[in-house]
Design goal:
The complex is a heterodimer of chains A (296) and B (281). With 296 residues, chain A is of the alpha/beta class. Chain A has helices at residues 52-60, 99-110, 116-129, 145-158, 175-192, 203-209, 247-271, and strands at residues 6-18, 25-37, 41-45, 67-72, 75-76, 84-87, 163-167, 195-200, 212-216, 224-229, 281-282. Chain A contains 7 helices and 11 strands. In chain A, helix 5 (175-192) links the parallel strand 7 (163-167) and strand 8. Chain B contains 11 helices and no strands. The chains are: A alpha/beta (296), B mainly alpha (281). Chain B: It is a multi-pass membrane protein. Chain B: Belongs to the binding-protein-dependent transport system permease family.
Chain lengths: 296, 281
């Protein structure tokens, strides 16, 4: 087991909403247990409707769990914190502020005592990092979708958070832009050792970016089905990862889950000795791979 | 020449064309009404005015044009209570409108902000706002005159009460419909509530608030004419009524022209202000 510090611990998390018929409550997900270790990149995959965004909002402190709790850096999450930056699905840039203004809004919230010069220099560093040098004074409406999300990434990282939370950050982008942004994000996160948690339904995105992938079954009453360890080497890139012998075992395992098991998991749950606190950990890899099947 | 400039030139030529056709038709109509002079006592004819001389009671465009020019060339004379320059009368009306409108903005915008932030307050106060909004502002006039006992302040109060509703409703709507994403950004950045109000909610709602202000000033300018006809004394509304009492149709038409011009300028000013706070998503 990795001895690294657990930055985020999700313990028995449950979220219910009043049901639409007005009687009783509908549980979106329940008994969710997993963690994110320092420097690790964890992805959560599931179909729409399994409460992925709700889960991320609870992690961010924007929503409250019905029961269970999230522990971030040793403290229970009750409200949003500058230690947990969020990259939103729809970039959520303020359209009346420039690129610099948007990032500065975050930086001045993090360090209110800094003077303008210091904040500008800090913002510039992150604008350069996402390759938007020269667009500092543009308004979001003048940027393409990909550029907007770059600003979103720069804004989230500029406050130097302990954890970066991402809610399908690239789902609104076209495939080409998505690919290049994934590469860039991978580079930035590896370079900074940024602890990250991302929600996605894109299998290749999860394989490229994450160290571990949490599989969530279909809602309502969604559960963590299992946790998949990424068997590809850390130095993977988008252009060469499909040549690795472990790529197809990983991909097939995830597709099999999304297509079939996410629906039928309830039977699996009833029959097997499923422990929600320790969901099975699998490591799909090619035959002969030395680390095959760590535990279950 | 670019297509845009060409199109604008075409529109301008068409506008002038419409004006020329309208003025020509007006002139022809007035001339056609003229007949032979009636055979009557010249003293009675002098009392009856132009009709007795066989002229139409309606002025020609030329008469109105020279009347308007007369007002423009000497707008600020003051020859007693019933004979003041149109500039002075307009200044009275603009002062009342701006005072009533300004006071309404001072109350409606902060109040709308508070109501818009609370779903409970919005729902609780909505029936009252909906009940008071359609009341003609002039219906408040007797109540205002009775309680305030001052016609000047009463007319300002009437302007205040008619301009408050659009601003209040638009501010509530603008604040309540600020995108959740933006508020969530502020929350995750632990931005204090006042800073969120100032840096996020206000700029996000500003275009909607400005639209409300623009509707309000338009209504206020409509209402001031009627209010001044009622209370009398000064103002462009009183001026119109005074010209009517003098049977000066020329004066009435030129007053209509001035009311239109000032209303247009007020609207343009708020339109420019709205451009300043507009943002593209």
């Amino acid at each position: 087991m990795n001895k690294a510090n657990k930055i985020i611990k999700v313990e028995g998390l449950e979220r219910s909403f009043p049901s639409t018929e007005g009687k009783g409550e509908t549980q979106v997900f329940g008994d969710v247990w997993f963690d994110v270790k320092e420097g690790e990149f964890v992805c959560l995959i599931g179909h729409s409707g399994c409460g992925k965004t709700t889960l991320l909002n609870i992690l961010a402190g924007l929503d409250q769990a019905t029961s269970g709790h999230v522990i971030a850096d040793g403290f229970a999450v009750e409200k949003p914190s500058l230690d947990r930056a969020v990259i939103f699905q729809g970039h959520a840039l303020m359209p009346w502020m420039t690129v610099m203004g948007n990032i500065d809004f975050a930086v001045s919230s993090r360090w209110p005592a800094w003077d303008k010069e210091k904040r500008r220099a800090h913002c510039q560093q992150f604008i350069d990092m996402v390759h938007l040098t020269g667009s500092e004074n543009k308004k979001p409406a003048q940027l393409s979708g990909g550029m907007k999300q770059r600003v979103g990434i720069a804004r989230a990282l500029a406050i130097e958070p302990k954890v970066l939370l991402m809610d399908e950050p690239f789902s609104a982008l076209d495939a080409l832009t998505r690919g290049s942004l994934q590469d860039e994000l991978l580079g930035i996160i590896a370079q900074r050792g940024q602890t990250s948690f991302m929600i996605t339904h894109d299998i290749d995105e999860a394989i490229l970016l994450s160290d571990r992938i949490v599989l969530m079954t279909n809602g309502p009453e969604a559960r963590v089905c299992e946790i998949v360890e990424n068997s590809l080497p850390k130095e993977r890139t988008r252009s060469d990862m499909h040549t690795h012998p472990n790529y197809y075992p990983m991909r097939n395992h995830l597709i099999e889950f999304l297509v079939n098991r996410s629906k039928s998991f309830r039977e699996e749950l009833a029959s097997a000795s499923y422990d929600p606190k320790n969901p099975p950990v699998v490591r799909p890899a090619a035959d002969g791979d030395t680390l095959n099947q760590v535990a279950s | 020449m670019s297509q845009d400039v060409k199109d604008r030139l075409k529109a301008m030529v068409a506008s002038i064309g419409f004006l020329v056709v309208f003025l020509a038709a007006w002139n022809a109509f007035v001339v056609a009404q003229s007949g032979p002079a009636a055979d009557m006592d010249p003293e009675l004819a002098a009392l009856l005015g132009p009709q007795a001389k066989g002229e139409s009671a309606l002025p020609t465009p030329g008469d109105v044009g020279s009347e308007i020019w007369g007002h423009i060339s000497n707008p600020f004379y003051d020859a007693g209570p019933n004979d003041k320059g149109v500039g002075i009368q307009l200044a009275y009306s603009i002062f009342r409108v701006l005072t009533g409108f300004g006071l309404a903005a001072l109350i409606a915008i902060p109040l709308g902000f508070l109501i818009g932030m609370s779903k409970l307050a919005a729902q609780a106060l909505n029936p009252y706002i909906q009940l008071l909004k359609p009341v003609s502002p002039l219906a408040w006039m007797p109540l205002a005159l009775y309680t305030i006992k001052d016609s000047e302040i009463s007319s300002i109060f009437v302007i205040f009460i008619c301009s408050i509703w659009p601003m209040l409703l638009n501010t509530i709507f603008g604040v309540a419909s600020v995108r959740k994403d933006w508020l969530n950004v502020a929350k995750t950045l632990e931005v204090p509530p006042l800073r969120t109000a100032w840096r996020v909610i206000l700029p996000a709602a500003a275009p909607t608030i400005l639209t409300g202000m623009r509707i309000s000033i338009g209504i206020a300018w409509l209402v001031i004419v009627a209010a001044e006809m009622l209370v009398g004394g000064t103002g462009i509304g009183y001026f119109v009524w005074n010209e009517w009492n003098n049977l000066s149709i020329t004066g009435v038409i030129s007053a209509i022209f001035f009311i239109g011009v000032v209303g247009m300028i007020l609207d343009l000013m708020l339109g420019q202000a709205a451009k300043l706070v507009a943002y593209a998503e």
